[in-house]
Each structure stands twice: as structure tokens, then as C-alpha cells.
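Consider the record:
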Amino acid sequence: MGERKPLPDLRNIPHLALETQSGERAEFLFRGTKGYIQQCELGLCIALAFPRRIEGPNWAHRISLLLASHERTVDFGLQYDGQHWLLWRRHDGIQAFTADACKHALDNMLSVMRYLYSCSAKPNVMHLNSMHKASIARFV
């Protein structure tokens, strides 16, 4: 593995309020949504917390399968931190991770979160078919 790069400068990203930053990790609010960014060995990882509680039988399993089923969402993952479900996304390298690129990535993540939330609220619609793949593709 290569040497870890520093975090990009988060102060100039529109709609992002930096809360804390230390070393390779930062916490922020983006458009009112709690978020985290950290530099890992495999790249830059960004997480946003689902703003509302999501429940239902096996929803996390179904959403994980949905994310894994499309080539554009294989770098996404779910994590429960004890209070919130987090949607993580890994980005390769950070050389070109400008303020505009970061804002665009965060806006895309919010769109994916809205789509996943709408799917979790509908019973029996999480089957993995071309309709869901096409819906995910337009957000990523």
C-alpha cells in the first residue's frame, strides 16, 4: 500500500460546515446531513448518516445487495454506528478531489440515500432487477 495522502481542504466546499478535523478524519454537516471523511489505505472514504430512522425486515441486507448489484455502486457500503446508519463511499486517490468534485460526490450520495430511503419504505420492492439498476445509475 502507498503512503496515505492528507485530506482535501474542506473549508471551501459549498453547503459544508466543518465540525472537527484531526489527522486523517473529519466530521461535517453537508446540507444538514451529518458526515464523515477519512483517508484510508484504499483511498478517500466519505460517509453520510441517514437523517431518518430506517426500519423493516432485512432492509440493510436488501440495500447492501442492491448496492453490490450495480457496477456504479460497488464502492458504497452500509455501517451502523450505534445511532445512525451510514452510507459510505470509497474514492480512489485524492489528487483531483477539488471542492467542486467533493460537493458533486456529496450531492450524488444524498441522491442515492433518498432513493434507498424511498425503497426501504416500500414493502417487497427491493428485488434486484433492471428497474432498480437503472434508477441507481442515474444518481451515480
